[in-house]
Design a protein that fits this description.
The complex is a heterodimer of chains A (220) and B (325).
Chain A: E1 2-10, E2 16-25, E3 30-35, H1 41-48, E4 56-61, E5 64-65, H2 74-79, E6 81-84, H3 96-107, H4 111-124, H5 140-152, E7 158-162, H6 170-185, E8 189-193, H7 197-203, E9 206-211, E10 214-218
Parallel strand pairs in A: 3-8, 3-9, 6-7, 7-8
Antiparallel strand pairs in A: 1-2, 1-4, 4-5, 9-10
Chain B: H1 9-44, H2 46-77, E1 86-90, H3 96-106, E2 112-118, H4 120-131, H5 134-139, E3 148-153, H6 158-169, E4 174-178, H7 181-223, H8 225-233, H9 238-280, H10 293-318
Helix pairs in contact in B: 1-9, 2-7, 2-9, 7-9, 7-10, 9-10
The chains are: A alpha/beta (220), B alpha+beta (325).
């Protein structure tokens, strides 16, 4: 589902974020991406949703060579991937409902279908009673769950999460991880970048470790 | 994505049609929603919006008022029906039969549409009647007025008329040829100048409106930078991101055009009484012509088009630069 082929990324200014990274993720897999901050985890996520282009090598998503994707085709690629961002990236002047509905509005779903899907996604993350609220009135964990509901509302085959438990206490972190686990159970390919090693070891999943831009597979 | 298998081929086709229809409906409803949202965002800050609308309105109203002035001047001069007239003053003592004969012969020229002969006696009667110098004329012992042949040329082209005047002066009976060519040329030039002026002022001010709207939209884009980034992050296409700003431009343009319309109609009402009094001292059937339905539609259409165009310029320059980081 996701394949990196000898991918290097050098940022302007000479910082090497990724060095000859290769790996493959099968459809339906769930994998953790670990490493110190600045190891290149976010860069890998950005390459998959074309926020960045690799300096060398190729990235494949669901069989598509992303280096052949033109600027105009980027939105379509992004719509096929659900992304949970570390800083939530919510619209603070819109209600929870409208935030979650955004990908559906972009994809052009009808009014009724949008309502149905948004409510399903919100109930999945346990925020059914908060759809009319604005994100500011929610706690950090709730905001993160709004972000998750938005990432899955379009039923993407791939779900990426960048430090989804970054600022949450252990109990909330576990709830969030359970959610990702549930999505994986129904066939979604999940990749989670985190530095919460305790959580990773408990989940007993494949782990990819980045160290100064170099990738190594951690044996289970 | 999985779909339930269609029970028959025809139902499969129906599904496809319905989904196309659903897409179109949803697209239309999204447009409606964006249009309403952008208008209500303008109305939420109505004072600021009103200022922008007024600035645009004034910029649009100026060339419209100039244009209306031009139209009205052209209408006043329309009394002179666009047909120049040439007067042939005949030599003193020309026999009336010869003169009538000349008037008849002139009719055969292709460049003359009609002629009418005014004998010196008729001319005196007419002059006495309209000039009020009857007493003075009575003291004269002979008729000072020559006989006249009035000609309506078949052309209105100034250079051809000049040639015609020279050729008419060549007839033996003709003493002099009077033709108010310069007045025609001057009026023609003034009207042409007016048209050019309206076009130039209109162009400059339209450019101004474009810049005003472009700048306003640029600020709106700047204000909603983070929203644009998020929409792009979750896969919003360029046209999806662009749409609210184009509607914003449309509303600015339309609102500005409505202001312009009100300003123009207001000025017309304000000006109509004195202008009509003035004009009616020359001509009794004059009424100031204002904006018709078509004119109003053109103003509103132009305003909206300028709004969308200004927004397009701003959007194409600034939206691409905003990418999620």
């Amino acid at each position: 589902m996701i394949r990196f082929d000898e991918v290097s990324k050098r940022y302007p200014g000479g910082k090497e974020a990724l060095v000859r990274v290769s790996f493959e993720l099968e459809a339906g897999e769930m994998v953790f991406l670990t490493g110190h901050s600045g190891a290149g985890k976010s860069t890998m996520m950005k390459l998959i949703i074309l926020m960045e282009r690799p300096s060398q090598g190729q990235v494949f998503l669901a069989g598509t060579n992303l280096s052949r994707v033109s600027r105009r085709q980027i939105p379509a690629v992004r719509r096929s991937v659900g992304v949970v961002f570390q800083n939530h990236q919510l619209l603070f002047d819109r209600t929870v409902f409208d935030n979650v509905a955004l990908p559906l509005a972009i994809a052009g779903f009808g009014h009724r279908e949008v309502g149905r899907r948004v409510r399903a996604a919100l109930s999945k993350v346990g925020l059914s009673d908060k759809e009319k609220l604005f994100p500011v009135t929610l706690s950090g964990g709730e905001q993160q769950r709004v972000g998750i509901a938005r990432a899955v509302v379009n039923k993407p085959a791939v779900l990426l999460a960048d430090e989804p438990t970054g600022n949450l206490d252990p109990e909330l972190s576990k709830e969030i991880m359970d959610l990702f686990h549930q999505f994986n159970q129904v066939g979604v390919t999940v990749m989670i970048a985190t530095h919460d090693l305790g959580l990773v070891s408990r989940m007993k999943r494949r782990e990819l470790k980045l160290d100064h831009g170099r990738l190594e597979e951690v044996a289970l | 994505m999985t779909k339930t298998p269609a029970s028959s081929k025809s139902s499969g086709a129906t599904t496809a049609v319905t989904s196309f229809r659903a897409k179109a409906l949803s697209w239309a409803s999204h447009h409606r929603r964006v249009a309403v949202e952008s208008l209500s965002s303008l109305l939420a800050t109505w004072l600021t919006s009103l200022m922008t609308w007024l600035v645009i309105g004034i910029a649009l109203a100026l060339p419209i008022i100039l244009y209306l002035m031009l139209v009205n001047v052209a209408e006043i001069s329309g009394e002179w029906d666009g047909q120049p007239r040439i007067s042939l003053y005949l030599v003193h003592g020309a026999a009336e039969t010869e003169a009538r004969d000349l008037a008849q012969r002139l009719l055969e020229r292709p460049d003359i549409e009609s002629t009418s002969f005014i004998s010196s006696v008729d001319a005196l009667v007419e002059f006495r009647a309209i000039s009020g110098f009857g007493d003075v004329l009575n003291t004269l012992d002979h008729n000072p007025l020559p006989a006249v042949i009035e000609i309506r040329p078949s052309t209105t082209d100034v250079s051809q008329l000049r040639l015609q005047v020279t050729s008419l002066a060549g007839y033996e009976l003709v003493d002099s040829v009077a033709f108010d060519l310069e007045w025609i040329e001057r009026l023609f030039a003034i009207l042409q100048f007016g048209e050019r002026l309206v076009a130039a002022v209109g162009f400059v001010l339209a450019l101004g409106v474009l810049l005003i709207i472009g700048n306003t939209i640029r600020l709106a884009i700047e204000n909603r930078r983070s929203e644009i980034e998020i929409v792009k992050l979750v896969g919003g296409t360029d046209s999806f991101v662009r749409r609210p700003f184009l509607y914003l431009g449309f509303w600015y343009g339309l609102g500005g055009a409505v202001c312009a319309w009100i300003l123009v109609q207001g000025s017309l009402i304000f000006l109509s009484a004195p202008v009509e009094t003035l004009a009616q001292s020359y001509r009794d059937d004059f009424a100031l012509s204002g904006l018709g339905v078509l004119d109003s539609c053109i103003i509103l259409g132009t305003g909206s088009a300028l709004g969308i165009l200004g927004a397009l310029v701003a959007v194409s320059r600034h939206l691409k630069a905003i990418e999620p980081k």
